[in-house]
Design goal:
The chain is built from ten helices and five strands, in the order H-H-E-H-H-H-H-H-E-E-H-H-E-E-H. The chain has 342 residues and is α+β, with helices and mostly antiparallel strands. The chain has two domains: 53 residues, no CATH class; 240 residues, Bacterial polysaccharide co-polymerase-like. Strands 1, 2, 3, 4 and 5 form a five-stranded antiparallel beta sheet that branches. Helix 1 crosses helix 10 and helix 2 packs across helix 10.
Length: 342
């Protein structure tokens, strides 16, 4: 048993020597290849465009008193398979912010840039080379969407908007424009819903006024015809029914009148729906490319990869060369013309 253990250890030592020795012998070549690829990567990184990242953080309003009309978004979310309450509209912000409605409005705005002397929109800034203006606009929307990242933190409710652009001031301006357009979009939906609600209440209120008048007139006519009803149980019951009908109509009228006034107030409100915790600031450092990290990754990958090739060539080189030689011999033998016998 001892002899077998010694032989196994010697076999392992010989095997390791067969792998390490060629790597150590070719260490200069390996380092040269890795350094060359690393320098090439560094040079390529200097040619790549530099991007700057600006971030805005939102804390959406969750007060049910200020967001009664936005509960419609909860129904939309439930149709999409997301179970949320009406006050948690912020879950839909990532979808809304990256929609054509928001990005289209953001792209149409004018921005000051370093590339143009005058303010330009993002279609002019991206300068897509398409055939029509509509295609240029769609390409600009797609480019802006690819540069934008919107995340929702389920535990805290924070919404983070991150945008990368080649100009730091432009990155901050565009991400703040996205926040402003989101606020306008949500406020418009709120006002539109309040307006529709007011119109329905006013229509229903006019109907209830007519119904109340009919009920009051019926009670008036009944009392004029029946001055004394206490002696007739049937007349007492009829009077109670008419009185109850007037009371019900009056209660509905008072409630609708109150709701109509509240709807008018809600319609003219111009409050901010989206609470901005942090607006986008002008970044002072680039976000990418990270030249040192990219160069280091390529250098070490090339170092290990070249070392592996040297080790594989030492272990399997003879087998591979023998296999290739046999294929060549077989190809030569197959290519020879058959010798005819006379």
């Amino acid at each position: 048993m001892e002899m077998e253990r010694v032989e196994a250890e010697q076999a392992v030592t010989v095997s390791l020597d067969g792998v390490v020795t060629p790597i150590w012998t070719g260490r200069k070549r390996i380092i040269q290849v890795a350094a060359g690829l690393g320098l090439l990567t560094l040079a390529i990184n200097f040619l790549l465009p530099v991007y700057y990242k600006s971030t805005a953080t939102l804390l959406p309003e969750t007060d049910k008193g200020k967001l009664p009309s936005l509960s419609q978004f909860a129904g939309i979310a439930q149709l999409a398979g997301v179970n949320i309450s009406g006050s948690e509209v912020s879950r839909l912000y990532p979808t809304i912010l990256t929609s054509d409605a928001i990005l289209g409005s953001v792209i149409a705005l004018k921005y000051k840039t370093q590339a143009f002397p005058d303010s330009v929109n993002l279609v002019q800034y991206f300068d897509p080379d398409e055939d029509t203006e509509a295609e240029n606009f769609e390409t600009a929307v797609r480019d802006l969407r690819e540069l934008t990242t919107v995340t929702y933190e389920s535990k805290t409710g924070f919404v983070t908007i991150t945008l990368e652009m080649t100009e730091p001031e432009l990155a901050a301006d565009v991400v703040n424009a996205m926040v402003d357009q989101l606020d306008q979009f949500m406020r418009l939906k709120k006002i539109t819903s309040a307006s529709e609600q007011r119109k329905w209440i006013e229509t229903r209120l006019r109907e209830v006024v007519l119904e109340l008048r009919v009920a009051e007139d019926s009670l008036k006519v009944f009392r004029e015809k029946n001055r004394r009803v206490v002696d007739s149980p049937r007349l007492v019951l009829e009077q109670e029914r008419l009185v109850r009908d007037v009371q019900v109509k009056s209660t509905i009228f008072v409630e609708l009148k109150k709701q109509a006034e509240l709807a008018k107030i809600e319609e003219i409100k111009n409050i901010s729906i989206v609470n901005v915790l942090d607006r986008g600031r002008v970044p002072v450092k680039k976000s990418r490319p990270n030249r040192l990290v990219n160069t280091a990754i390529v250098f070490f990958l090339a170092l290990f990869g070249t070392s592996g090739l040297y080790a594989a060539e030492s272990v399997y080189g003879e087998k591979i060369r023998g296999f290739v030689a046999s294929l060549r011999r077989r190809g030569n033998s197959d290519g020879k013309a058959p010798v005819s016998s006379r």
